Recover the amino acids of this structure.
Protein backbone atom coordinates (compact mmCIF):
# COMPACT_ATOMS: atom_id res chain seq x y z
CA UNK A 1 0.00 0.00 0.00
CA UNK A 2 2.87 2.37 0.79
CA UNK A 3 4.43 1.90 -2.65
CA UNK A 4 1.17 2.63 -4.47
CA UNK A 5 -0.12 5.48 -2.31
CA UNK A 6 1.08 8.98 -3.11
CA UNK A 7 -0.44 10.19 0.13
CA UNK A 8 1.76 8.02 2.37
CA UNK A 9 4.78 8.72 0.23
CA UNK A 10 4.23 12.45 0.60
CA UNK A 11 3.77 12.18 4.37
CA UNK A 12 6.99 10.21 4.77
CA UNK A 13 8.90 12.44 2.37
CA UNK A 14 7.77 15.67 3.98
CA UNK A 15 8.51 14.42 7.48
CA UNK A 16 11.95 13.34 6.37
CA UNK A 17 12.41 16.67 4.58
CA UNK A 18 11.56 18.52 7.80
CA UNK A 19 13.29 16.42 10.48
CA UNK A 20 16.63 15.86 8.76
CA UNK A 21 17.26 19.43 7.58
CA UNK A 22 16.08 20.83 10.89
CA UNK A 23 18.49 18.70 12.88
CA UNK A 24 21.35 19.33 10.49
CA UNK A 25 20.61 23.06 10.30
CA UNK A 26 20.59 23.38 14.09
CA UNK A 27 23.96 21.65 14.37
CA UNK A 28 25.56 23.42 11.43
CA UNK A 29 24.01 26.72 12.46
CA UNK A 30 25.56 26.53 15.90
CA UNK A 31 29.09 25.83 14.69
CA UNK A 32 28.81 28.24 11.78
CA UNK A 33 27.35 30.95 13.98
CA UNK A 34 30.05 30.35 16.54
CA UNK A 35 32.75 30.69 13.90
CA UNK A 36 31.14 33.67 12.20
CA UNK A 37 30.50 35.44 15.50
CA UNK A 38 34.12 34.86 16.47
CA UNK A 39 35.32 36.17 13.13
CA UNK A 40 33.01 39.17 13.35
CA UNK A 41 34.10 39.87 16.92
CA UNK A 42 37.76 39.66 15.94
CA UNK A 43 37.16 42.05 13.06
CA UNK A 44 35.13 44.49 15.16
CA UNK A 45 37.51 44.43 18.11
CA UNK A 46 40.48 44.90 15.82
CA UNK A 47 38.74 47.93 14.34
CA UNK A 48 37.95 49.24 17.82
CA UNK A 49 41.59 48.88 18.85
CA UNK A 50 42.81 50.51 15.65
CA UNK A 51 40.46 53.43 16.24
CA UNK A 52 41.48 53.65 19.89
CA UNK A 53 45.17 53.48 18.98
CA UNK A 54 44.68 56.25 16.44
CA UNK A 55 42.94 58.41 19.06
CA UNK A 56 45.67 57.70 21.61
CA UNK A 57 48.42 58.54 19.17
CA UNK A 58 46.66 61.81 18.35
CA UNK A 59 46.29 62.49 22.08
CA UNK A 60 49.97 61.82 22.81
CA UNK A 61 50.92 63.86 19.75
CA UNK A 62 49.01 66.82 21.19
CA UNK A 63 50.87 66.45 24.50
CA UNK A 64 54.17 66.25 22.61
CA UNK A 65 53.42 69.40 20.62
CA UNK A 66 52.36 71.19 23.80
CA UNK A 67 55.68 70.39 25.47
CA UNK A 68 57.67 71.42 22.41
CA UNK A 69 56.00 74.84 22.50
CA UNK A 70 58.77 75.82 24.95
CA UNK A 71 61.12 75.98 21.97
CA UNK A 72 58.82 78.37 20.07
CA UNK A 73 60.59 81.42 21.61
CA UNK A 74 64.12 80.17 21.06
CA UNK A 75 65.33 83.47 19.54
CA UNK A 76 62.91 85.84 21.29
CA UNK A 77 64.09 87.92 24.29
CA UNK A 78 62.21 87.34 27.54
CA UNK A 79 60.69 84.10 26.23
CA UNK A 80 60.51 81.02 28.45
CA UNK A 81 63.28 79.26 26.58
CA UNK A 82 65.50 82.38 26.69
CA UNK A 83 64.80 82.76 30.41
CA UNK A 84 65.85 79.14 31.06
CA UNK A 85 68.92 79.60 28.87
CA UNK A 86 69.99 82.78 30.72
CA UNK A 87 69.30 81.42 34.20
CA UNK A 88 72.21 81.80 36.66
CA UNK A 89 73.04 80.10 39.92
CA UNK A 90 71.23 81.35 42.98
CA UNK A 91 74.16 83.41 44.33
CA UNK A 92 74.70 85.17 41.00
CA UNK A 93 71.13 86.32 40.38
CA UNK A 94 70.68 90.05 39.71
CA UNK A 95 68.25 92.67 40.94
CA UNK A 96 64.69 91.93 41.95
CA UNK A 97 63.26 93.72 38.92
CA UNK A 98 64.78 91.22 36.54
CA UNK A 99 63.69 88.45 38.84
CA UNK A 100 60.13 89.73 38.66
CA UNK A 101 60.29 89.80 34.86
CA UNK A 102 61.65 86.27 34.83
CA UNK A 103 58.90 85.13 37.20
CA UNK A 104 56.21 86.68 35.01
CA UNK A 105 57.60 84.92 31.93
CA UNK A 106 57.54 81.54 33.67
CA UNK A 107 54.09 81.99 35.17
CA UNK A 108 52.46 83.28 31.97
CA UNK A 109 53.99 80.56 29.78
CA UNK A 110 53.05 77.79 32.19
CA UNK A 111 49.54 79.25 32.52
CA UNK A 112 49.13 79.21 28.73
CA UNK A 113 50.16 75.56 28.67
CA UNK A 114 47.86 74.79 31.62
CA UNK A 115 44.86 76.33 29.89
CA UNK A 116 45.51 74.56 26.57
CA UNK A 117 44.46 71.13 27.91
CA UNK A 118 41.61 70.60 30.36
CA UNK A 119 43.17 67.35 31.64
CA UNK A 120 46.34 69.06 32.92
CA UNK A 121 46.45 68.93 36.70
CA UNK A 122 49.92 70.27 37.44
CA UNK A 123 52.94 71.59 35.53
CA UNK A 124 56.41 71.51 37.04
CA UNK A 125 59.45 73.15 35.42
CA UNK A 126 62.84 72.61 37.04
CA UNK A 127 65.81 74.76 35.94
CA UNK A 128 69.21 73.13 36.50
CA UNK A 129 71.22 76.36 36.59
CA UNK A 130 69.57 77.82 39.69
CA UNK A 131 68.07 74.60 41.13
CA UNK A 132 64.67 76.28 40.95
CA UNK A 133 61.27 74.59 40.75
CA UNK A 134 58.41 76.41 39.04
CA UNK A 135 54.97 74.89 39.54
CA UNK A 136 51.49 75.75 38.30
CA UNK A 137 48.81 73.90 40.27
CA UNK A 138 45.12 74.73 40.28
CA UNK A 139 45.96 78.04 38.57
CA UNK A 140 48.43 79.02 41.33
CA UNK A 141 52.05 79.66 40.38
CA UNK A 142 54.76 78.87 42.93
CA UNK A 143 58.55 79.10 42.74
CA UNK A 144 61.19 78.00 45.22
CA UNK A 145 64.75 76.82 45.48
CA UNK A 146 64.65 73.00 45.34
CA UNK A 147 68.12 71.46 45.47
CA UNK A 148 66.65 68.12 46.61
CA UNK A 149 64.77 67.52 43.32
CA UNK A 150 66.08 64.70 41.18
CA UNK A 151 64.41 64.30 37.75
CA UNK A 152 63.15 60.86 36.79
CA UNK A 153 65.13 58.93 34.21
CA UNK A 154 63.53 57.28 31.22
CA UNK A 155 63.12 53.46 31.50
CA UNK A 156 65.64 53.21 28.67
CA UNK A 157 68.23 55.06 30.77
CA UNK A 158 68.52 57.87 28.23
CA UNK A 159 67.76 61.55 28.67
CA UNK A 160 64.66 61.64 26.52
CA UNK A 161 60.93 62.38 26.77
CA UNK A 162 58.81 59.64 28.33
CA UNK A 163 55.53 59.05 30.11
CA UNK A 164 55.46 57.94 33.73
CA UNK A 165 52.64 55.48 34.36
CA UNK A 166 49.68 56.52 36.47
CA UNK A 167 50.51 57.44 40.07
CA UNK A 168 49.18 59.67 42.89
CA UNK A 169 50.04 63.32 42.38
CA UNK A 170 52.96 64.84 44.35
CA UNK A 171 54.67 68.22 44.70
CA UNK A 172 58.05 67.34 43.09
CA UNK A 173 59.85 67.94 46.41
CA UNK A 174 58.54 71.47 46.91
CA UNK A 175 57.93 72.46 50.52
CA UNK A 176 55.31 75.14 49.94
CA UNK A 177 51.80 74.03 49.12
CA UNK A 178 48.25 75.17 48.52
CA UNK A 179 45.95 75.32 51.54
CA UNK A 180 43.20 72.68 51.71
CA UNK A 181 44.75 70.73 48.81
CA UNK A 182 46.09 67.41 49.95
CA UNK A 183 48.88 65.85 47.95
CA UNK A 184 48.34 62.32 46.62
CA UNK A 185 44.58 62.57 46.25
CA UNK A 186 44.48 62.57 42.44
CA UNK A 187 45.57 59.77 40.07
CA UNK A 188 47.65 61.25 37.22
CA UNK A 189 50.16 60.19 34.61
CA UNK A 190 53.13 62.43 33.91
CA UNK A 191 54.86 63.47 30.70
CA UNK A 192 58.53 64.25 31.43
CA UNK A 193 60.56 66.33 28.98
CA UNK A 194 64.21 67.32 29.20
CA UNK A 195 64.76 70.88 27.90
CA UNK A 196 67.86 70.83 25.71
CA UNK A 197 70.37 73.59 25.10
CA UNK A 198 69.99 73.48 21.31
CA UNK A 199 71.67 72.30 19.22
CA UNK A 200 73.43 70.16 21.84
CA UNK A 201 71.78 67.41 23.89
CA UNK A 202 72.62 69.08 27.22
CA UNK A 203 69.57 69.29 29.48
CA UNK A 204 69.03 72.81 30.91
CA UNK A 205 65.93 71.80 32.77
CA UNK A 206 63.08 69.35 33.04
CA UNK A 207 59.40 69.87 32.26
CA UNK A 208 56.85 67.58 33.90
CA UNK A 209 53.14 67.75 33.12
CA UNK A 210 50.62 65.78 35.20
CA UNK A 211 47.44 64.72 33.37
CA UNK A 212 44.20 63.43 34.80
CA UNK A 213 42.84 60.20 33.28
CA UNK A 214 39.65 61.82 31.99
CA UNK A 215 40.58 61.80 28.29
CA UNK A 216 42.01 58.27 28.48
CA UNK A 217 38.75 57.07 30.03
CA UNK A 218 36.72 58.68 27.22
CA UNK A 219 38.89 57.02 24.56
CA UNK A 220 38.73 53.66 26.33
CA UNK A 221 34.92 53.70 26.74
CA UNK A 222 34.51 53.49 22.98
CA UNK A 223 36.59 50.31 22.84
CA UNK A 224 34.94 47.88 25.26
CA UNK A 225 31.72 46.82 26.97
CA UNK A 226 31.74 47.69 30.63
CA UNK A 227 31.40 44.68 32.93
CA UNK A 228 32.19 41.96 30.36
CA UNK A 229 35.42 43.14 28.71
CA UNK A 230 38.66 44.73 29.87
CA UNK A 231 41.02 47.27 28.31
CA UNK A 232 44.64 48.03 29.27
CA UNK A 233 47.12 50.64 28.09
CA UNK A 234 50.57 49.33 29.00
CA UNK A 235 54.05 50.69 28.50
CA UNK A 236 56.85 48.47 27.25
CA UNK A 237 57.60 47.32 30.81
CA UNK A 238 54.00 46.22 31.40
CA UNK A 239 53.07 49.17 33.57
CA UNK A 240 49.39 50.07 33.34
CA UNK A 241 48.97 53.67 32.26
CA UNK A 242 45.23 52.94 32.17
CA UNK A 243 43.02 49.95 32.95
CA UNK A 244 39.28 49.39 32.87
CA UNK A 245 39.84 47.85 36.33
CA UNK A 246 40.68 50.82 38.59
CA UNK A 247 42.60 48.56 40.98
CA UNK A 248 45.16 47.74 38.28
CA UNK A 249 45.86 51.32 37.19
CA UNK A 250 49.49 52.23 37.83
CA UNK A 251 50.52 48.65 38.55
CA UNK A 252 52.73 46.35 36.58
CA UNK A 253 50.63 43.62 34.99
CA UNK A 254 51.88 40.12 35.71
CA UNK A 255 53.53 38.11 32.97
CA UNK A 256 51.39 35.74 30.93
CA UNK A 257 48.60 36.79 28.63
CA UNK A 258 49.77 40.40 28.81
CA UNK A 259 53.06 39.47 27.13
CA UNK A 260 52.32 40.09 23.48
CA UNK A 261 54.73 39.18 20.63
CA UNK A 262 57.42 41.86 20.54
CA UNK A 263 57.85 41.83 16.75
CA UNK A 264 54.20 42.31 15.86
CA UNK A 265 52.33 45.60 16.10
CA UNK A 266 48.83 44.11 16.19
CA UNK A 267 47.02 40.78 16.41
CA UNK A 268 45.17 38.50 18.80
CA UNK A 269 45.61 35.20 20.61
CA UNK A 270 43.68 32.94 22.97
CA UNK A 271 44.50 32.95 26.66
CA UNK A 272 43.35 31.02 29.69
CA UNK A 273 44.23 31.28 33.35
CA UNK A 274 42.42 31.16 36.67
CA UNK A 275 40.85 34.59 36.12
CA UNK A 276 40.28 34.77 32.40
CA UNK A 277 39.48 32.56 29.41
CA UNK A 278 39.03 34.16 26.03
CA UNK A 279 40.78 36.15 23.32
CA UNK A 280 43.35 38.88 23.86
CA UNK A 281 43.61 41.61 21.22
CA UNK A 282 46.66 43.85 21.12
CA UNK A 283 47.76 46.92 19.19
CA UNK A 284 51.14 48.61 19.44
CA UNK A 285 51.28 52.34 20.22
CA UNK A 286 54.31 54.09 18.76
CA UNK A 287 54.79 57.81 19.36
CA UNK A 288 57.74 60.06 20.27
CA UNK A 289 56.39 60.26 23.81
CA UNK A 290 54.92 56.84 24.54
CA UNK A 291 55.68 53.33 23.35
CA UNK A 292 53.57 50.45 24.52
CA UNK A 293 50.52 48.31 23.82
CA UNK A 294 46.78 48.69 23.87
CA UNK A 295 45.19 45.43 25.09
CA UNK A 296 41.59 44.25 25.09
CA UNK A 297 40.35 41.06 26.78
CA UNK A 298 37.15 39.49 25.43
CA UNK A 299 35.93 36.38 27.32
CA UNK A 300 34.50 33.41 25.43
CA UNK A 301 31.20 33.78 27.27
CA UNK A 302 30.81 37.20 25.74
CA UNK A 303 31.85 35.90 22.31
CA UNK A 304 29.55 32.89 22.14
CA UNK A 305 26.55 34.28 23.99
CA UNK A 306 24.90 35.35 20.74
CA UNK A 307 25.66 31.97 19.17
CA UNK A 308 23.96 30.11 22.02
CA UNK A 309 20.95 32.43 21.89
CA UNK A 310 20.64 31.90 18.15
CA UNK A 311 20.90 28.13 18.66
CA UNK A 312 18.05 28.16 21.19
CA UNK A 313 15.92 30.21 18.80
CA UNK A 314 16.79 27.87 15.92
CA UNK A 315 15.87 24.81 18.00
CA UNK A 316 12.50 26.28 18.94
CA UNK A 317 11.79 27.21 15.34
CA UNK A 318 12.85 23.73 14.23
CA UNK A 319 10.39 22.07 16.60
CA UNK A 320 7.66 24.39 15.38
CA UNK A 321 8.52 23.50 11.78
CA UNK A 322 8.37 19.82 12.68
CA UNK A 323 4.84 20.10 14.04
CA UNK A 324 3.70 22.28 11.17
CA UNK A 325 5.38 19.90 8.72
CA UNK A 326 3.48 16.90 10.05
CA UNK A 327 0.17 18.73 9.72
CA UNK A 328 1.13 20.07 6.29
CA UNK A 329 2.18 16.60 5.11
CA UNK A 330 -1.29 15.19 5.66
CA UNK A 331 -3.03 18.26 4.27
CA UNK A 332 -0.84 18.52 1.17
CA UNK A 333 -1.13 14.82 0.39
CA UNK A 334 -4.93 15.14 0.27
CA UNK A 335 -4.80 18.36 -1.72
CA UNK A 336 -2.40 16.80 -4.20
CA UNK A 337 -4.50 13.81 -5.12
CA UNK A 338 -7.67 15.59 -6.25
CA UNK A 339 -6.04 17.85 -8.89
CA UNK A 340 -4.01 14.93 -10.22
CA UNK A 341 -7.15 12.87 -10.63
CA UNK A 342 -8.87 15.70 -12.51
CA UNK A 343 -5.88 16.06 -14.85
CA UNK A 344 -5.82 12.30 -15.50
CA UNK A 345 -9.53 12.37 -16.34
CA UNK A 346 -8.95 15.30 -18.70
CA UNK A 347 -6.10 13.57 -20.56
CA UNK A 348 -8.34 10.56 -21.11
CA UNK A 349 -10.96 12.79 -22.77
CA UNK A 350 -8.32 14.39 -25.01
CA UNK A 351 -7.01 10.95 -25.90
CA UNK A 352 -10.37 9.94 -27.36
CA UNK A 353 -10.57 13.17 -29.42
CA UNK A 354 -12.59 15.51 -27.22
CA UNK A 355 -10.44 18.61 -27.88
CA UNK A 356 -13.07 20.93 -26.39
CA UNK A 357 -12.69 19.39 -22.94
CA UNK A 358 -11.54 21.71 -20.12
CA UNK A 359 -10.11 21.08 -16.66
CA UNK A 360 -11.83 22.96 -13.87
CA UNK A 361 -9.45 25.45 -12.22
CA UNK A 362 -10.06 25.02 -8.50
CA UNK A 363 -7.02 26.85 -7.07
CA UNK A 364 -4.51 29.55 -7.99
CA UNK A 365 -1.45 27.60 -6.85
CA UNK A 366 0.96 25.58 -9.01
CA UNK A 367 -1.80 23.08 -9.80
CA UNK A 368 -4.02 25.94 -10.89
CA UNK A 369 -1.25 27.28 -13.13
CA UNK A 370 -0.63 23.80 -14.52
CA UNK A 371 -4.34 23.32 -15.16
CA UNK A 372 -4.56 26.69 -16.93
CA UNK A 373 -1.50 25.86 -19.04
CA UNK A 374 -2.97 22.48 -20.01
CA UNK A 375 -6.25 24.16 -20.99
CA UNK A 376 -4.35 26.75 -23.03
CA UNK A 377 -2.19 24.07 -24.62
CA UNK A 378 -5.23 22.02 -25.61
CA UNK A 379 -6.94 25.10 -27.01
CA UNK A 380 -3.78 26.01 -28.94
CA UNK A 381 -3.54 22.50 -30.38
CA UNK A 382 -7.19 22.63 -31.36
CA UNK A 383 -6.70 26.06 -32.99
CA UNK A 384 -3.63 24.82 -34.85
CA UNK A 385 -5.57 21.84 -36.15
CA UNK A 386 -8.39 24.13 -37.32
CA UNK A 387 -5.89 26.58 -38.80
CA UNK A 388 -4.09 23.82 -40.66
CA UNK A 389 -7.43 22.57 -41.95
CA UNK A 390 -8.41 26.05 -43.10
CA UNK A 391 -4.99 26.58 -44.69
CA UNK A 392 -5.37 23.33 -46.58
CA UNK A 393 -8.80 24.42 -47.84
CA UNK A 394 -7.38 27.84 -48.81
CA UNK A 395 -4.47 26.18 -50.59
CA UNK A 396 -6.85 23.99 -52.58
CA UNK A 397 -8.93 27.05 -53.44
CA UNK A 398 -5.85 28.94 -54.60
CA UNK A 399 -4.76 25.99 -56.70
CA UNK A 400 -8.23 25.88 -58.24
CA UNK A 401 -8.10 29.60 -59.01
CA UNK A 402 -4.63 29.19 -60.50
CA UNK A 403 -5.91 26.41 -62.73
CA UNK A 404 -8.84 28.59 -63.73
CA UNK A 405 -6.43 31.43 -64.56
CA UNK A 406 -4.49 29.11 -66.87
CA UNK A 407 -7.50 28.19 -69.01
CA UNK A 408 -6.42 28.31 -72.62
CA UNK A 409 -3.06 30.11 -71.96
CA UNK A 410 -1.89 28.91 -75.36
CA UNK A 411 -4.88 30.62 -76.95
CA UNK A 412 -3.89 33.99 -75.41
CA UNK A 413 -0.24 33.50 -76.25
CA UNK A 414 -1.08 32.44 -79.85
CA UNK A 415 -3.37 35.45 -80.15
CA UNK A 416 -0.49 37.74 -79.17
CA UNK A 417 1.74 35.99 -81.72
CA UNK A 418 -0.89 36.58 -84.40
CA UNK A 419 -1.01 40.28 -83.48
CA UNK A 420 2.79 40.38 -83.53
CA UNK A 421 2.83 38.79 -87.02
CA UNK A 422 0.31 41.36 -88.18
CA UNK A 423 2.54 44.15 -86.84
CA UNK A 424 5.47 42.74 -88.84
CA UNK A 425 3.31 42.69 -91.95
CA UNK A 426 2.72 46.39 -91.49
CA UNK A 427 6.43 46.87 -90.56
CA UNK A 428 5.63 48.05 -87.01
CA UNK A 429 8.78 46.65 -85.42
CA UNK A 430 8.38 48.50 -82.12
CA UNK A 431 4.86 47.13 -81.73
CA UNK A 432 6.22 43.67 -82.48
CA UNK A 433 8.92 44.02 -79.78
CA UNK A 434 6.44 45.27 -77.19
CA UNK A 435 4.00 42.41 -77.94
CA UNK A 436 6.84 39.88 -77.66
CA UNK A 437 7.86 41.43 -74.34
CA UNK A 438 4.28 41.21 -73.08
CA UNK A 439 4.05 37.59 -74.24
CA UNK A 440 7.29 36.72 -72.44
CA UNK A 441 5.96 38.34 -69.26
CA UNK A 442 2.71 36.36 -69.53
CA UNK A 443 4.57 33.12 -70.05
CA UNK A 444 6.91 33.94 -67.12
CA UNK A 445 4.08 34.79 -64.71
CA UNK A 446 1.82 31.90 -65.80
CA UNK A 447 4.52 29.30 -65.16
CA UNK A 448 3.09 28.53 -61.70
CA UNK A 449 4.96 25.27 -61.37
CA UNK A 450 8.24 27.16 -60.97
CA UNK A 451 8.83 28.98 -57.66
CA UNK A 452 12.55 29.74 -57.94
CA UNK A 453 14.60 31.06 -60.83
CA UNK A 454 18.08 32.38 -61.38
CA UNK A 455 18.73 36.07 -60.96
CA UNK A 456 19.46 36.21 -64.70
CA UNK A 457 15.94 34.99 -65.51
CA UNK A 458 14.44 37.48 -63.06
CA UNK A 459 16.42 40.31 -64.68
CA UNK A 460 15.20 39.31 -68.16
CA UNK A 461 11.62 39.50 -66.90
CA UNK A 462 12.29 42.99 -65.48
CA UNK A 463 13.82 44.06 -68.80
CA UNK A 464 10.58 43.10 -70.58
CA UNK A 465 8.62 45.08 -68.00
CA UNK A 466 10.85 48.13 -68.46
CA UNK A 467 10.50 47.84 -72.24
CA UNK A 468 6.76 48.34 -71.86
CA UNK A 469 7.39 51.28 -69.49
CA UNK A 470 9.68 52.86 -72.09
CA UNK A 471 6.74 52.84 -74.50
CA UNK A 472 4.69 54.54 -71.81
CA UNK A 473 7.18 57.30 -70.89
CA UNK A 474 9.33 57.41 -74.04
CA UNK A 475 13.05 56.73 -74.37
CA UNK A 476 13.95 60.36 -73.72
CA UNK A 477 12.21 60.28 -70.31
CA UNK A 478 13.35 56.87 -69.05
CA UNK A 479 16.97 55.83 -68.46
CA UNK A 480 17.71 52.25 -67.38
CA UNK A 481 21.09 51.15 -66.02
CA UNK A 482 22.08 47.61 -64.95
CA UNK A 483 25.12 47.04 -62.71
CA UNK A 484 24.96 43.28 -62.20
CA UNK A 485 27.93 41.32 -60.88
CA UNK A 486 28.54 38.31 -63.09
CA UNK A 487 28.73 35.84 -60.21
CA UNK A 488 25.27 36.86 -58.99
CA UNK A 489 23.46 35.93 -62.20
CA UNK A 490 23.45 32.21 -61.35
CA UNK A 491 22.12 32.75 -57.82
CA UNK A 492 18.74 31.14 -57.16
CA UNK A 493 16.07 33.56 -55.95
CA UNK A 494 12.30 33.38 -55.47
CA UNK A 495 10.34 34.25 -58.57
CA UNK A 496 8.87 37.77 -59.01
CA UNK A 497 10.92 39.64 -56.38
CA UNK A 498 12.38 42.36 -58.63
CA UNK A 499 9.33 43.52 -60.58
CA UNK A 500 7.54 44.85 -57.42
CA UNK A 501 10.68 46.89 -56.58
CA UNK A 502 10.86 48.39 -60.09
CA UNK A 503 7.10 48.83 -60.24
CA UNK A 504 7.31 50.77 -56.95
CA UNK A 505 9.46 53.36 -58.76
CA UNK A 506 6.73 54.20 -61.27
CA UNK A 507 3.90 53.91 -58.75
CA UNK A 508 5.27 56.09 -55.92
CA UNK A 509 8.43 57.90 -56.97
CA UNK A 510 6.79 59.75 -59.86
CA UNK A 511 3.15 59.88 -58.78
CA UNK A 512 3.32 63.69 -59.09
CA UNK A 513 4.70 63.47 -62.64
CA UNK A 514 8.17 63.88 -64.10
CA UNK A 515 9.64 67.03 -62.53
CA UNK A 516 13.43 66.70 -62.32
CA UNK A 517 14.28 65.47 -65.82
CA UNK A 518 14.10 61.89 -67.10
CA UNK A 519 13.34 58.93 -64.85
CA UNK A 520 16.55 57.13 -63.93
CA UNK A 521 16.33 53.54 -62.70
CA UNK A 522 19.45 51.66 -61.60
CA UNK A 523 19.46 47.94 -60.77
CA UNK A 524 22.61 46.57 -59.09
CA UNK A 525 23.67 43.31 -57.47
CA UNK A 526 26.78 41.88 -55.81
CA UNK A 527 27.90 39.29 -53.26
CA UNK A 528 29.28 40.46 -49.92
CA UNK A 529 32.29 38.92 -48.14
CA UNK A 530 30.11 36.20 -46.59
CA UNK A 531 28.65 35.25 -49.98
CA UNK A 532 25.26 36.82 -49.29
CA UNK A 533 23.36 38.32 -52.22
CA UNK A 534 22.69 42.07 -52.27
CA UNK A 535 20.18 43.52 -54.80
CA UNK A 536 19.38 47.26 -54.96
CA UNK A 537 16.92 49.28 -57.07
CA UNK A 538 17.53 53.06 -57.10
CA UNK A 539 15.61 55.95 -58.66
CA UNK A 540 15.74 59.74 -58.82
CA UNK A 541 12.17 60.32 -57.76
CA UNK A 542 10.75 62.87 -55.36
CA UNK A 543 12.56 64.01 -52.21
CA UNK A 544 11.68 62.01 -49.07
CA UNK A 545 12.41 63.03 -45.49
CA UNK A 546 14.13 60.53 -43.14
CA UNK A 547 10.86 60.26 -41.19
CA UNK A 548 8.96 59.30 -44.37
CA UNK A 549 11.57 56.65 -45.20
CA UNK A 550 11.31 55.19 -41.69
CA UNK A 551 7.51 55.12 -41.90
CA UNK A 552 7.70 53.26 -45.22
CA UNK A 553 10.15 50.73 -43.76
CA UNK A 554 7.89 50.27 -40.74
CA UNK A 555 4.87 49.72 -42.99
CA UNK A 556 6.77 46.98 -44.83
CA UNK A 557 8.31 45.21 -41.84
CA UNK A 558 5.35 45.44 -39.44
CA UNK A 559 1.80 44.35 -40.07
CA UNK A 560 -0.60 47.31 -40.18
CA UNK A 561 -4.36 47.69 -40.31
CA UNK A 562 -4.08 48.92 -43.92
CA UNK A 563 -3.14 45.66 -45.61
CA UNK A 564 -3.01 47.33 -49.06
CA UNK A 565 -0.28 49.79 -48.03
CA UNK A 566 3.02 48.81 -49.73
CA UNK A 567 1.53 45.38 -50.39
CA UNK A 568 3.96 44.60 -53.23
CA UNK A 569 7.10 45.22 -51.16
CA UNK A 570 5.57 43.51 -48.13
CA UNK A 571 4.88 40.40 -50.19
CA UNK A 572 8.47 40.42 -51.46
CA UNK A 573 9.85 40.59 -47.91
CA UNK A 574 7.38 37.94 -46.68
CA UNK A 575 8.41 35.53 -49.45
CA UNK A 576 12.12 36.13 -48.82
CA UNK A 577 11.70 35.38 -45.12
CA UNK A 578 9.63 32.33 -45.96
CA UNK A 579 12.50 30.96 -48.04
CA UNK A 580 15.53 32.30 -46.19
CA UNK A 581 14.31 32.93 -42.64
CA UNK A 582 14.16 36.11 -40.59
CA UNK A 583 17.73 37.03 -41.58
CA UNK A 584 16.48 38.23 -44.99
CA UNK A 585 15.74 41.96 -45.00
CA UNK A 586 14.43 44.83 -47.11
CA UNK A 587 15.84 48.29 -46.36
CA UNK A 588 15.27 51.78 -47.74
CA UNK A 589 17.60 54.75 -47.99
CA UNK A 590 16.67 58.22 -49.21
CA UNK A 591 19.01 60.35 -51.36
CA UNK A 592 19.98 63.93 -50.57
CA UNK A 593 19.11 65.02 -54.14
CA UNK A 594 15.85 63.09 -54.28
CA UNK A 595 15.03 59.50 -54.97
CA UNK A 596 15.12 56.24 -53.05
CA UNK A 597 17.15 53.03 -52.93
CA UNK A 598 15.36 49.81 -52.00
CA UNK A 599 17.82 47.02 -51.13
CA UNK A 600 17.31 43.30 -50.60
CA UNK A 601 19.72 41.32 -48.44
CA UNK A 602 19.46 37.56 -49.06
CA UNK A 603 21.53 35.26 -46.80
CA UNK A 604 22.26 32.64 -49.44
CA UNK A 605 25.38 31.28 -47.80
CA UNK A 606 23.71 28.95 -45.32
CA UNK A 607 20.26 28.09 -46.67
CA UNK A 608 18.44 26.02 -49.25
CA UNK A 609 15.31 26.94 -51.28
CA UNK A 610 12.75 24.15 -51.34
CA UNK A 611 10.48 24.08 -54.36
CA UNK A 612 7.31 22.52 -53.15
CA UNK A 613 5.84 21.88 -56.59
CA UNK A 614 9.02 20.20 -57.86
CA UNK A 615 9.76 18.46 -54.54
CA UNK A 616 13.44 19.35 -54.91
CA UNK A 617 15.86 21.77 -53.20
CA UNK A 618 17.97 24.48 -54.78
CA UNK A 619 21.22 25.42 -53.05
CA UNK A 620 21.23 29.14 -52.31
CA UNK A 621 24.99 29.38 -52.06
Amino acid sequence: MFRKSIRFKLIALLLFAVILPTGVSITVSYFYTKASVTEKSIRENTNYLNLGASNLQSYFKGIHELALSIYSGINIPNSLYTSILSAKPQHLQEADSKEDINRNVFSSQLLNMFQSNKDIYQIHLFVNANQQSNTLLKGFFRREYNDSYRPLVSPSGKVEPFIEITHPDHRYGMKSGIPNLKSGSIEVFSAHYPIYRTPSDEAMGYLSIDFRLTELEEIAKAMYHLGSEQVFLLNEEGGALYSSDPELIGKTIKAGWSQVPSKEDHGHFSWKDENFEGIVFYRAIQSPLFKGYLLKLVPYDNLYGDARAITHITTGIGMLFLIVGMIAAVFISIRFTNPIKRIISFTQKVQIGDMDAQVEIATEDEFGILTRKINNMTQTINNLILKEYKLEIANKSNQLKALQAQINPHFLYNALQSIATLSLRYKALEVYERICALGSMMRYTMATGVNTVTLQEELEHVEHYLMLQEERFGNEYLEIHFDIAEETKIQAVPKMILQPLVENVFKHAFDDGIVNGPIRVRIASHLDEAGNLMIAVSDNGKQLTPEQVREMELAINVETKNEMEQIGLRNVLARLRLYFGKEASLTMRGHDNGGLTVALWIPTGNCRIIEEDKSESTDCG
